[in-house]
Each structure stands twice: as C-alpha cells, then as structure tokens.
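Worked example

This section walks through a single chain of length 115. The input is the sequence exactly as stored; nothing has been trimmed or padded.
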Amino acid sequence: MTTGAEQGEIVEVGSPVLVAPDPVDGARPFAWMSTIIVTATLFLALFNAHAIAAWFDELPPSPYTEPLRAPIAAWAGLTERLGFDAPRAAVRSRWEAAQAARFDAEQPGEDGSAQ
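Given that input, the structure is written out below as tokens.
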C-alpha cells in the first residue's frame, strides 16, 4: 500500500496486521540444514545399508572402489545381523508376495487379461 502517490511520493506502509517474524529467520539456517542432512545420512546408513551395498556393487571396478567393497559389504552384513534391515526386509517380502499373487487360472508371466 502506498500513500502520497498523488504528490509524486511513494512511501511503503506496513501491514495493518501485526505478523510475528518467521522463527526460521532468527535461527541459524546453515546449522539447521547441516543437522538435517547428517541425521538423514545416519538414518539411511543404518536402515538402508542393503541398498547402499547393492548400488556400490553395480559400480565398475576401479582403484577407488575396490578398497571400499569389503567394508561396505561388512557394514551391510552388520546392520542385517543387528536387525536394522528388518523393516526393509518385511516390506520387500510383502512386495514379492503381492507380485506372486495369481488370480483364477492365471499363470506366471501372463498379464491376467481375458483373451
């Protein structure tokens, strides 16, 4: 909203409603963002180590990847033995059971539509 435009002045007038400042503006956004990224990274490293190992296995062998292959496989095995892999394994088994579901006389590999 501006006033005094008829005299060539343009003056900004604030909002008539008192609005509280955004709490994120007062916080340190870099520290907040860094905390979120570190937390997400640790969560994925603990509960999704199987996917990290599977992705790493698809990388082509090189002098940089080969020394890391054994530690990553060991980490995935450790998280599986500790049970951190259980939620992923449960979802995976339910997905495979849903894929294996058949209706009537449908055979594996058929699309299930009537011919």
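What to look for: The longest strand covers residues 2-3.
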